[in-house]
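Q: I'm writing up a methods section and want to include an example of the input and output format. Could you take the sequence below and give the corresponding predicted structure tokens, formatted cleanly so I can copy it straight into the document?
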Amino acid sequence: MSQTPSHPGPSSRTPPSPGPSSQTPSSRTPSIIFVCWGNICRSPMAERVARKWFYDAGVQADISSAGVSDEEGPSPMDRRARAVLEANGYDGSRHVAHQIDADEIDSADLVIAAEPMHVSMLRRISPHATNPRARKFSLICDYDPAKKPGTPLPDPWYGPDRQFVTTLRAIEAAMPGIVDAVRRLS
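A: Here is the clean output for your methods example:
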């Protein structure tokens, strides 16, 4: 998995960066996992957007997504999420939802969640990955300079179809900061 596009310029706020314990040797490709509740809407949308942005920026990364819950596995991406991705030039095909496990968390350089609740759940799944100096966990919107740190990514699941566009725009607004954070890992 890999890659993403270069869009708006650098942000005025420095996004969270991994601490020394999560630095990646230059011989290894950084690994990023996007996480939401069921891995059928927000996290696969972020994964697909990130792949395109990283590719367009020429930044190598292993990019995946997962959910903190197993209730949707092994379902495909929500049809509305897929439709919004494809209407905006992103690949929405071949996704299978799955629940994240401790091994995935431990092997990732960055675990980027949709909501603070997801970070709490991730810390329970992998308690030894909670070193505050590692800065392994962050939220998608933490990388958007226009958002207050800790802002959750809008959940489109219960709303009208247009909420998926709102969620996509929020993901895209965070992507320059995410690309920059991964560049610093390399």
